[in-house]
Write a structure and sequence with these properties.
Layout lengths: L8 H11 L7 E4 L8 E3 L2 E7 L1 E2 L2 E2 L2 E4 L2 E4 L7 H5 L2 E4 L2 E4 L15 H28 L6 H19 L1
Antiparallel strand pairs: 1-3, 2-3, 4-5, 6-7, 8-9
Helix pairs in contact: 1-4
This protein binds iron/sulfur cluster (SF4).
Length: 162
């Protein structure tokens, strides 16, 4: 496996509502790097990420010899901020290549992207709080129950902020 595109509850909500599909159709469970930020589903603790096909994201399509993201307008935050991430408050370039899409980056990238990075951070904070609440409760532990729970919380949050 060359890469993992981790998703949070906002990513799951955006993709499932735009594609009108169940989250289980595009989510896959991964052994977590950090159990404190993992979701308790099925038989253990997992990170949620996009499904891949032989090391390539399922949403990557090739047309006329060009690779393109088929969910570009609502791709996960980790893809929107790629090839940078925020580490200890500073922009750093991700060393490992995640996606072969041709990324053309504008000048003054840090300034232009700062609001997107802030939004990305807020969504991951929301997700970590949501996981904590989910993991503490005694509920049906299926992945579909978790994604229903996550989607309903995101919808409430979006309504409240509208
Ligand atoms: S940007 Fe690449 S990795 Fe991300 S969803 Fe699109 S095809 Fe997949």
């Amino acid at each position: 496996m060359d890469f993992v595109v981790y998703v949070n509850s906002h990513d799951i909500h955006r993709i499932s509502t735009n594609l009108k599909v169940d989250p289980e159709s595009f989510i896959q469970l991964y052994q977590p790097e950090d159990e404190d930020s993992a979701v308790r589903v099925e038989d253990g603790l997992y990170d949620l990420a996009l499904k891949d096909d032989k090391g390539t994201c399922n949403f990557l399509k090739r047309e006329a010899g060009q690779f393109r993201c088929s969910i570009q307008p609502f791709k996960p935050g980790i893809c929107r901020t790629y090839p940078f991430e925020v580490r200890r408050g500073r922009f750093v370039q991700i060393v490992k290549k995640v996606c072969p899409v041709d990324w053309r980056l504008p000048k003054n990238l840090e300034m232009q992207m700062s609001s997107m990075y802030n939004e990305h951070d807020k969504e991951w904070d929301f997700y970590l709080d949501l996981i904590e609440e989910w993991n503490e409760g005694k509920k049906d532990r299926s992945l579909s129950s978790f994604t229903n729970f996550a989607n309903s919380r995101v919808e409430i949050s979006l309504q409240n902020s509208a």
